[in-house]
């Protein structure tokens, strides 16, 4: 089995660019009911993951930052506390499973680092549960 079997393609995944504001990122997390979301740059390359905690820590630790002015803060300036490592689309299943053990989702990239989708830990667990119990 190849990891592409578990791929949720980019066009079906919510993600943000690192040029949007903190407010826009918060709205994306809320809209999609996510606690973390992949970040890509202007070239489409995966650059990290933004979590709710990152937003809260930024709000707490930045003097003068309030909900009224978070629209002025670019995501690129927010320190990321969680780094979801990515996996190449042609990587071994074992590599992906190792990452999925510690991450709710594994970002998938091509050879140039371009974000092509994610693999959700939920989908992996459901697959193995079906195949173990059948």
Characterization of the model:
- The chain has one domain (3-133): CBS-domain (Roll).
- The protein is of the alpha/beta class.
- It is built from 4 helices and 7 strands; from the N terminus they run ββαββαβαββα.
- A 4-stranded mixed beta sheet has the order 1-7-6-5. Strands 2-3-4 form a 3-stranded mixed beta sheet.
- It is 31% helix and 21% strand.
- Helix 1 links the parallel strand 2 (16-17) and strand 3 (36-40).
- The longest helix is centred in the C-terminal third of the chain and has 13 residues, at 121-133.
- It comes from Paenibacillus odorifer.
Give a nutshell description of this structure.
InterPro entries: CBS_dom (IPR000644), CBS_dom_sf (IPR046342), Diverse_CBS-Domain (IPR051257). This protein is α/β, with parallel strands linked by helices.
Comma- or semicolon-separated keywords:
about 130 residues; alpha/beta; about 30% helix
Proportion of beta-strand residues:
15-25%
The shape, in one word, is elongated
Based on the structure given, which CATH architecture is correct? Roll
The total of helices stands at: 4
Q: In which range does the helix fraction lie?
A: 25-40%
Helix/strand structural class: alpha/beta
Q: Tell me the radius of gyration.
A: 16 Å
Using the coordinates above, name the CATH class.
Answer: Alpha Beta
**Biggest sheet features:** 4 strands, mixed
N-to-C order of helices and strands: EEHEEHEHEEH
Keywords: CBS domain
Protein name: CBS domain-containing protein
InterPro entries: CBS_dom (IPR000644), CBS_dom_sf (IPR046342), Diverse_CBS-Domain (IPR051257)
Domain CBS: 7-65
